[in-house]
Amino acid sequence: MLTATGFAPGRINLIGEHTDYNDGLVMPIALRLGVTVAATSRDDTSVRLTTDAAVSPRDVAYVLGAEERDGTWVDRARGVTAMLAREGAAIRGFDAEITSDLPVGAGLGSSAAFAIALLRSLSKLFDLALDDPASARLAHAAETEFAGARAGMLDQLASVYGRAKDALLIDMRDHATQVIPLPSTIELAVIDSGTRHEHATGGYNRRRAECEDACLHLGIASLRDIDGSPLDELLERLPAPLDRRVRHVVTENGRVRRAVDAVRARDDVELGQLLNASHRSLRDDYEVSTPELDELTGLAIGAGALGARMVGGGFGGSIIALTRRGRGHDLAAEALARYRDRGRLVAVVP
Ligand code: GLA
C-alpha cells in the first residue's frame, strides 16, 4: 500500500470580491493555514475519509463510480473523484486522512483548499501528473458541476498559485497573473466572525444569476465588457436590483486597479480607504454582508485599522483589517473584546 500527501492553502483576497465570475480582477494572498490530505491506496473501489475538522460527518465511505451529492463537505471529495473519472484518470480506491488548520466555512477558501490537497495527493498516489492549472480546473469543476455552488475560480487559483507575502493580481478573463509584493509597512488581521449563514450557497448562486441577467439586458457577454463605458447611462437601463449589482462589480474592478497603484506607491492610507469602499459596496450594492460582518469591520476601524472589509463570498465568514506592521494582534484583540458574537483571530498576514 502506498501513501502520498498533498497540501493546499486557504486564501484571503485583498480586494476584488464577486468579480471573478464576471471576468474581473482579483488580488488573493495565500494563507499559511491550509488542508493536508494523506491518501493510501486500496485494492478495491472504496473511498474512506476521516477528518479532524469541525465538520459532520467525520468518517465517511463511498464507492468510486457511485458518487452522489448529499450537501455535505464530502461532495468536494465525490466531485473530485467523479471529475477525475470523467477525464479518464485511472484511480483506484483509497483511504484519506484529512487534517486542517483552516477554519471551515469562514470565507477563507477551505473547500477549494481541500479539493486541491486531495488532487495533489491522488496525483502522486496514482501517477496522474496533474499540474497546477489542471488541479485548479478539476477542483473548480468539482465545486460547480458536482457540489452545485456556482463559484468563480478565485479560490482554486489562489490555492495553487497564491503566495504568503505577496498579493497576486489575477485577470480572470485570461488568468494572466502578476505578483504584487506587499509593502513591509502593513499587515492584515484575518478575523473570523464565527457566523455562517445557511442560505450562503443559494444567495451566492442568486447573485451570479443576477449578473448573467444584467448581461442579457445589456447585450454583453460579461460585465467586464462594461469597462470604460459611461456607467450611469448603462445603470439606467437596468431594473433594480440589477443596477446595484452591476455598480458593485464595475466599481470593484476599478478599486482593484487603484489598490495595485496604492500598494506600489506604498500609500497605505489610500489602500485602507479602498478596502472600506469595497466593504460598503458589498454591503449596500451587492448585499452580501451581514450585521456581524458590518459590526466587526466597524470595530476594527474603531480600534485603529486603516481599513477593513468582509472577505470571500459573504453571508457570514471573515473580515480582513489593514494595519501598520506589528499592530495586527492588538487590533484584533481590541475589536473582538467589543464584538457581540464569538469571533476569533485566524491569522496575521503576511
Ligand atoms: C467565494 C467564491 C469565489 C468568489 C468569492 C467572492 O469565495 O468561491 O469564487 O466569487 O466568493 O469574491
Strand content: 25-35%
Mean pLDDT across all amino acids: 96
Give a short account of the largest sheet: 5 strands, mixed
Can you list the strand order of the major beta sheet?
1-3-6-4-5
Order of helices and strands: EEEEEHEHHHEEEHHHHHEEHE
CATH topology of the largest domain: Ribosomal Protein S5, domain 2
The kinds of small molecule bound in this structure are: alpha-D-galactopyranose
The count of β-strands is 12
Discrete helix count: 10
> Compute the gyration radius: what is it?
20 Å
Low-confidence stretches: none
Class by SSE composition: alpha+beta
Classified by CATH, the class of the largest domain is Alpha Beta
CATH architecture of the largest domain: 2-Layer Sandwich
Distance between the termini: 39 Å
What is the total number of structural domains?
2
Name the overall outline: globular
